[in-house]
């Protein structure tokens, strides 16, 4: 398992904009398009709290894809496979009835410490939080390519992961090496 460490210590991040603000700036997105989500209801249906910066990304951007590559799964998405509530329930049921060997060595949420998917890519990458620990803002991100034993770990927040993917050529899933400017393609909301 490879580890990507956050380059900026927490003390230096406080001096910067939030990573959500950085993603907004990198994509030129209009923050005025923000939607309201009933997170209490969403988290009750999923069975866990979700990371705060993910919730902000979902409200600011809604369902869609960054640079046509990273599909953000949100509540109420246009496609059930990208609706974080419906897809989480479906994956949990599939793992319960068929086993979780596709995600080894991890389990699938709602299993304790299981994987909870928050995104996907056009190249069949799957983006998860490892729900290990009580604080969702500290959950690491795990990325799986469409191949066994291909887990990559990122110890940082969801918005930080997206920002680095968009802007840092050395990021393992970098889009920065392909595009000089970045965008978000909305798939129906907000």
How does the SSE layout of this entry go?
Blueprint: E1 2-5, H1 10-13, H2 19-27, H3 39-46, H4 52-61, E2 64-66, E3 70-72, H5 84-98, E4 115-121, E5 126-130, E6 141-144, E7 151-155, H6 158-167, E8 184-186
Parallel strand pairs: 1-7
Antiparallel strand pairs: 2-3, 2-8, 3-4, 4-5, 5-6, 6-7
How would you briefly describe this protein structure?
This protein is 29% helix and 18% strand. It has helices at residues 10-13, 19-27, 39-46, 52-61, 84-98, 158-167, and strands at 2-5, 64-66, 70-72, 115-121, 126-130, 141-144, 151-155, 184-186. Strands 1-7-6-5-4-3-2-8 form an eight-stranded mixed beta sheet.
Explain how this protein is built.
The chain is of the alpha+beta class. 29% of the residues lie in helices and 18% in strands. It contains 6 helices and 8 strands. The protein has helices spanning 10-13, 19-27, 39-46, 52-61, 84-98, 158-167; strands spanning 2-5, 64-66, 70-72, 115-121, 126-130, 141-144, 151-155, 184-186. It has an 8-stranded mixed beta sheet. α2 (19-27) packs parallel to α6 (158-167) and α3 (39-46) packs parallel to α5. The radius of gyration is 16 Å and the shape is globular. The N and C termini lie far apart (36 Å).
């Amino acid at each position: 398992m490879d580890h990507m460490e956050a380059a900026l210590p927490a003390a230096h991040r406080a001096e910067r904009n939030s990573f959500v603000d950085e993603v907004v700036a990198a994509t030129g997105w209009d923050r005025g398009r923000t939607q309201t989500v009933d997170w209490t209801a969403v988290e009750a249906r999923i069975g866990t709290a979700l990371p705060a910066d993910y919730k902000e990304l979902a409200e600011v951007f809604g369902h869609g894809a960054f640079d046509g590559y990273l599909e953000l799964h949100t509540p109420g998405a246009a496609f059930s496979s990208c609706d974080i509530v419906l897809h989480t329930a479906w994956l949990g049921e599939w793992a319960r009835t068929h086993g979780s060997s596709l995600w080894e060595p991890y389990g699938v949420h709602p299993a304790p410490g299981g994987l909870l998917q928050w995104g996907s890519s056009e190249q069949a990458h799957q983006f998860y939080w490892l729900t290990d620990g009580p604080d969702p803002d500290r959950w690491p991100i795990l990325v799986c390519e469409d191949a066994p034993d291909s887990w990559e770990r990122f110890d940082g927040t969801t918005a930080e992961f997206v920002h680095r993917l968009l802007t840092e050529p050395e990021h393992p899933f970098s889009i920065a090496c392909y595009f000089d400017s970045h965008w978000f393609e909305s798939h129906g909301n907000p």
